[in-house]
Amino acid sequence: MIAVLLLALAPQSETQPERSLAHDLYRAQIAAAESATRLGEAAVARAWLDETDPALRGFEWRVHDAAKDESSWGITVEQGHVYTLDVSPDGATLAVGLSTGGIELRRTSDGSSIATLAGYKESLAQLRFDSTGERLVSASFDRTVKVWDVARRELLVDFLEHKYPVGGAAFSPDGKLIASCSYERPGNDVVGTVHLWNAVDGTLVRTFQGGRKPLIGLAFSPDGRRFAAGSWDFCVFTWSVDGGEPVKCPVPDEGVYNAVDDVAWSPDSKFVVGGSKDKSARVWNADTGELVATLRAHTDFVGAVDFARDGETLATGSADGSICIWNTKDWSLKSKASGHAGPIEDLRFAPNSKTLYSGSRDKTLRAWDTTHDWYGGAKMRATAAVYVARFSPDDQLIASCSYDGRIQIWSAVTLDLLSAWQAHPSKSSCHALGWTSDGRRLVSGSWEPVVRVWDSRSGKEIAALEQPAGTYYLAVSPDGRLLATACGKQVIVWNLNTFTRQSVFEGHSQGVTAVNFSPDSRWCASTGRDGKALVWDAATGELRCSITAGGQNTAEAVFTTDARELAVAGRNGVVTLHDAEDGTLLRTLARSRHGITHLDLSPDGTRVAIATDIVELIDSRHGRIVGSLRPHFTGTYNVDFDSTGERLASCATDETICVSEVRPLRERLALRSHALAARARAQAQVETEIAGGRSAVELLTEFDDRSVSAEVPEVRRARLEALILALANQRP
Question: Which end of the chain has the lower number of beta carbons within 10 A, N or C?
């Protein structure tokens, strides 16, 4: 950690903007939080974020802060911490066992309290409902197992046959039997022990033994024929309820401590899973003990495992505070969720297989929605490497273009694909894209010597603008009148009202890499491989100033919101700020260790986002990199803020488009749910209108022509998405 602080505080440039010790400390704290996150130290990351000066917190802090809690809801328990929990069969009640020995009943809807049972003197080890939800069995380290009447809050059975701490207990599926696990010490030995007993009167049926270490975590197979327990003897044991020797499911010896702390059965009773202290979970064939899969994604002990009742997913919880959701068809990782700031002690799926509940030593109880894949960052997957992803002017849509020549249109709220079409030949790629200011048209460029203008809703081509060569990059003026394209060593400017060539800017000695207009559309900045950034009068083509920056290759230049200054990024990783009128170097903003491909400025002007091997954020006032995001597996190609500055879209050659947001995941999922419901209603209405003889094109024209002042934005967005989908379905 000291190394992180020293690195963050080290001087980077002889030309520095306004700096302060407080700002240097903020950078160091963000760097430490990011390092802790990558190491899986959620609690450490949370502590570093909380230490930062609120006055200095920017986009990077807000994104990291939101990412630290991806749960649907979370509450803090007042006494001790959650050690075990279970969900009632009707999905309405949570039974929560605490480290203090208390047992609480809570509502699954929000975690609010219902009642408290008498409890124990020592910590709970395991709580489980019977199949009716009428009884609850609890095991404790105080060596007892108790059966409770849930409705009456009364003790029914107090089982006292264990001589040592009890590690788990559960009802058989028919509710007639209870198995509880512990260990015995005959002589100087330790023997894992399971008692099987009558759930009504507590009479002992039979005793089982397995291994030379304590047993912890117990579960019956759903078919009721067997039960399993985790062993600190580095394995999982399964027994037949009728007796006999256990089947041993061994954890391979990989040179690290690998005791098993929890077990779970697949709903079909074919597989048993154990969570181990070697940071993995393992899946075995329950009949033979043969290892089927090893699940690795956590950075610390795996102490909690549970299958969804539909059998499609498995959840694992770790001492690193994270939850992993696995696809049981191929045992691949589906998603990894963050929210707890301490070790997860237990987790259980609701009967609907969609909601997961977890408890942690951080004293919180949390709920999770396992039906989406937005944990760890919301992503869209394109059909090929993505070169540009841009928000529409109203922030409702995202357009992307890919290596295979395709354009795809996505909902910026639900992130669903709405429309796609082949914009350019697949061998020509499609790597330049821009919206017109009204959002109704898109302009695209490729290695094909033609720039194409599209209706963004229908995908219909409006115009084809022929050029002497392919287009490397393009930009549409904010007023929607002009198009500037980077074509070889030239910048070609087109009139988008008449689709005629207006002027050609010539000044670069090597290929032009990017073009951008000023916010007032008066100026156009171009960058090239000759190491120059040139500022032009957009209307006349007169050269306003020439800037030498970026080493031998400049990546892109963007104007500040007042158009007075120009941020210039070089492929060498240096970002400088210049006077946009005469090109004077004002200051060096930052030096990245990575080469820069593109950049964007936040609407409030406080942050410059740069696309490098990762996404990095620069404080435009104080200078220097203040944070980073790692949403992609490969290098980031482009970045784009929405008009509010609360979302940043990024894209990469790994075929993904990611949206980094400052809003908590629960808020985004709520918006997504409402948007999906509104779209479904709009689709039904559009389908009815089309069935009545109206065309989708006619409906869209009517939609564009009518006044929007009195319309609810959500309703209008839903109808637009429904119309885009209808038009996409009609496309050949």
Answer: C
Burial class (CB in 10 A: 0-12, 13-18, 19+), 129: buried
pLDDT above 80: residue 433: yes
CB atoms within 10 A of CB 250: 17
Going by their DSSP bridges, the two strands 113-117 and 103-107 should be labelled as antiparallel
Cβ-based neighbour number of residue 392 at 10 Å: 21
CA–CA separation, 645 and 106 (whole Å): 39
CA distance 628 to 615: 6
What is the value of pTM for the model shown?
Answer: 0.89
Q: What three-state secondary structure class fits 656?
A: strand
Closest CA to 567 of 552, 551, 549: 549
The conformation of residue 370, written as its DSSP 8-state character, comes to: -
Q: Is 320 helix (H, G, I), strand (E, B) or coil?
A: coil
Confidence class of residue 177 from pLDDT cuts 50, 70 and 90? very high
pLDDT at 223 over 90: yes
Tokens of 576: 């400088």
- Which fold does the domain 378-661 belong to in CATH? Methylamine Dehydrogenase; Chain H (2.130.10)
pLDDT at 239 over 50: yes
Each domain of the chain, given as residue ranges in start order, spans: 2-57, 131-359, 378-661, 666-730
Q: What is the pLDDT of residue 188?
A: 82
pLDDT at 383 exceeding the cut of 80: yes
Positive or negative, the Cα torsion across 393, 394, 395, 399? negative
CA-based max dimension of the chain: 97
Residues 87 and 359: beta-carbon distance below 8 Å:
no
Helix orientation angle between 59-67 and 21-38, rounded to the nearest 10 degrees: 30
Residue 76, judged by CB atoms within 10 A of its CB (0-12, 13-18, 19+), counts as: exposed
Secondary structure (3-state) at 671: helix
Q: Are 61 and 91 in contact (CB under 8 A)?
A: no
Nearest to 615 by CA among 49, 11, 60, 25: 60
**With contact defined as beta carbons under 8 Å apart, do 560 and 541 qualify?**
no
- Tokens representing 644 are 């509010």
Strand-strand pairing, 313-318 and 323-327 = antiparallel
Averaged pLDDT for residues 229-241: 95
List Cβ neighbours of 25 (8 Å cut-off, separation of 6 or more): 53
CATH 2.130.10.10 fits 131-359, yes or no: yes
**Cβ 398 vs Cβ 657: under 8 Å:** yes
Burial 345-368 (b: 16+ CB within 10 A, else e): bbbbbbbebbbbbbbbbbbbbbbb
Residue 194 binned pLDDT confidence (cut-offs 50, 70, 90): very high
Length of the chain: 732
Q: Give the three-state DSSP class for 48.
A: helix
Report the Cα–Cα distance between both ends of the chain, in Å, rounded.
Answer: 58
Residue corresponding to tokens 């941020």: 567
Say if 131-359 and 378-661 have the same CATH topology: yes
Give the phi and the psi of residue 648 in degrees, each rounded to 5: -130, 120
C-alpha distances in angstroms, 41 versus 37, 45, 259, 322, 341? 6, 6, 22, 9, 8
Residue type, 223: D
Residue of 580, 458, 578 lying closest to 522 (CA atoms) = 580
Q: What pLDDT is recorded for position 711?
A: 74
The stretch 86-91 carries a mean pLDDT of 98
CB–CB of 535/583 below 8 Å? Answer: yes
